[in-house]
Amino acid sequence: MEASRDRLMAIIRTQSEIAASDLDTEQVMHLVAKRAQEITGATSAVIELPEGEEMVYAVTCGEATPYLGIRMDRRSTLSGLALDRDQVLFCEDTEIDPRVDRRASRRVHLRSMICVPLKHQDRSVGVLKVYSPDPRHFGEAEVETLNLLSEAMSAHLAHASLFEVAAKEGRTDALTGLLNRRAYEERRVVEAARSARYGHPLALCIFDLDGFKAVNDRYGHTAGDAVLQGVAKVIDSSRLTDDAFRIGGDEFAVLMPQTTLDGAVIAANRLTTRLAEARLGDGTVTASYGVASTIGDALSLHDAADRALIDAKRQLRAPAAG
């Protein structure tokens, strides 16, 4: 009884905090996700938004923080099913639940979860999800709590489209659809902390485009934009999208958790080969890259990969200098 009362008081405090503040929609989503994790005892909380046939992790907290922007097949996720059915769904164990893609769940260390649709004007516009790496972590009390919390949030949605704005503008590059520099800086620090905690290597590939300026100068920025979108398409087909970022004009980064330097070189070579095969800018645009790998040091990882990229660009220009 006391635990139930504490949960209810926490929900009331959250609702009051939202109502009394000047928080924008993105901040409200972060607040609700954080409170959902705390109140239910979950290790992770996520707000997922539908985008075509996929569900996108638009807000993440707890151990799910590194998975910001990750995409899941809507048809094979419990959150997609909760959205389509417009009902709360509960999974005790993803390893035995036929509604869930086990491999996708393992990818984000998810074993049990609760998914609650978020509504605006009687229409489901997203899903609030809490999860744990342990089976049977949640019970009916947590389901009820999460349902009440989602209602508190839904009551303060000014317009359903604000979900999409908050999800996309904050950490997504508008031109390419890849995650942006802000998302890169956040993810790099979190992945480095995870690397240090578990002693796993973390690799990084930074690459930029060769011949891109000439395309812009010769054909204009519309042609240049098409090249950048082509790069994003190649990255998307390589299945690296969740950890790929546009961090500058024609500069991109790919984070590779649990990857050694040798493994990163193989992945970088494969990616630059595909970019060359895509014949971007009528075949005149290619890419140079620099890679690095470390355990737990986000700053040195970026600096080392950046130096390696500079060296690669210098070697590319060397024959012309001679």
Output the keywords.
Alpha-Beta Plaits, four-stranded antiparallel sheet, 322 residues, alpha+beta, elongated, 49% helix, 2 domains, six-stranded antiparallel sheet, Beta-Lactamase
Describe the structure.
With 322 residues, the chain is α+β, with helices and mostly antiparallel strands. The protein folds into two domains: 2-170, Beta-Lactamase; 181-321, Alpha-Beta Plaits (2-Layer Sandwich), CATH 3.30.70.270. It has helices spanning 2-19, 25-40, 78-85, 102-107, 140-154, 161-171, 181-198, 212-219, 221-237, 261-277, 298-321, and strands at residues 44-51, 54-62, 71-73, 89-91, 112-120, 123-132, 202-210, 244-246, 251-257, 286-294. The strands form two sheets. A six-stranded antiparallel sheet has the order 3-2-1-6-5-4, with helices on both faces. It has a four-stranded antiparallel sheet with strand order 8-9-7-10, with helices on both faces. Helix 1 packs antiparallel against helix 2 (25-40), helix 2 (25-40) packs antiparallel against helix 5 (140-154) and helix 8 (212-219) runs antiparallel to helix 9. The radius of gyration is 22 Å and the shape is elongated.
Spatial strand order of the main sheet: 3-2-1-6-5-4
In CATH, what is the homologous superfamily of the largest domain? Answer: GAF domain
- N-to-C SSE string, H for helix and E for strand: HHEEEHEHEEHHHEHHEEHEH
- Annotated CATH architecture of the largest domain: 2-Layer Sandwich
The CATH topology of the largest domain is Beta-Lactamase
Tell me the Rg in angstroms: 22 Å
Number of strands: 10
Kindly report how far apart the N and C termini lie: 81 Å
CATH class of the largest domain: Alpha Beta
- The gross shape turns out to be elongated
Counting structural domains, the number is 2
Number of helices: 11
Share of helical residues: 40-55%
Which spans have pLDDT < 50 for at least 5 consecutive residues? none
| Biggest sheet details | 6 strands, antiparallel
User: What structural class do helix, strand and pairing data support?
Assistant: alpha+beta
